[in-house]
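Ticket #4471: structure output looks truncated?

Reporter: J.K.
Steps to reproduce: submitted the chain below (385 residues) through the standard prediction queue, then opened the result file.
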Amino acid sequence: MPSYPRPLTSRLPQVGTTIFSVMSALAAEHGALNLSQGFPDFDAPAELLALLDQYARGGHNQYAPMTGVPVLREAIAAKVSALYGASYDVDAEITVTAGATQAIFTAVAALVHPGDEVIVFTPVYDSYAPSVELQGGKVVYAHLTLPDYRPDWDEVARLITPRTRLIILNSPHNPTGTVWTAEDMARLEALVKNTDIVLLSDEVYEHMVFDGARHESVLRYPGLAERAFVVSSFGKTYHITGWKVAYCLAPRELMAEFRKAHQFIVFTVHAPSQYALADFMKRPGWYEQLKALYQGKRDIFRQALAGSRFELMPCQGTYFQCVKYGAISDEGDRAFVERLTREHGVAAIPVSAFYPDGEDHGVIRFCFAKSAATLAQALERLIKL
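Returned output as attached by the reporter:
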């Protein structure tokens, strides 16, 4: 094939293949247990799969409404009302999206103009900064401070300028497993009060908060919710990451702008999945079961590694566990996880990949959303190091 006739100027010159794809490919190449990419290796509930089949065979195979099928938006509204006491208009303030990453990108595309500043917290999930940069915005990095990866609100206050358009927050936090507190939300609310700053809250791990703690959703705080896009994911909640179905909530003025972009980015989302999810959301007790499932897996993982040379870091939520490996190796984290995959058959993610400058604190991330058999094999290998 002939080459393109003139050199391309990349709009994302620093971006290559994501670390998740790299490590999953390396795991496949070496037959390693994949504790790198954040997806379960067990199936979705059988009842949900049966509902998907029912609706696909029942004729729900054409375009869904751009905003999402009404019964699913109604179920979402009922959920956030029951869990957080938040009231959202089904027609004007809820949109179903093709995954959480699309929702995040769409919110940024709808809001950020060239030259606008967007504050994100490092270590940062890898889609945030490229979404901002593609709109011509400037990413401003606040730091979650080790060892607990807590937000430094004095630093955030210093970073806010008249150009600050958006603050992106993520709790429970990927990759660190940190969960923000009510005090964090109060500090954030005080910072944005009397400003035009909009919030984008990534809450895809909302149902994975451990040890009796409460998920401090933006939806619990009217002073935050009134200026926020809030994103959650069915993929994380129902073990169906491959379905790529999520949703965004926002006040009607913000949602109107979101939908202007949404209709041209993806337009609509797989219809049978939406009907199946709307039905399955009526099942009582699922969120409590999910929390118990992942707390159990976290506890097993931590108890096994407590006797190893890995140093456990706090894990308050998500299905990720970060560890330090300094007692095992003085390698950089990228070199260590590659060797761990090749020589010991367990794949992980280097946390330096979540820093814009590759800042390396000797921390790696494991995903424990795996079957009991997978976790047992992986732990057997890890505790021998």
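Triage note (M.O.): checked the attachment and the full token line is present. The first strand starts at residue 33 and ends at 34.
Status: closed, working as intended.
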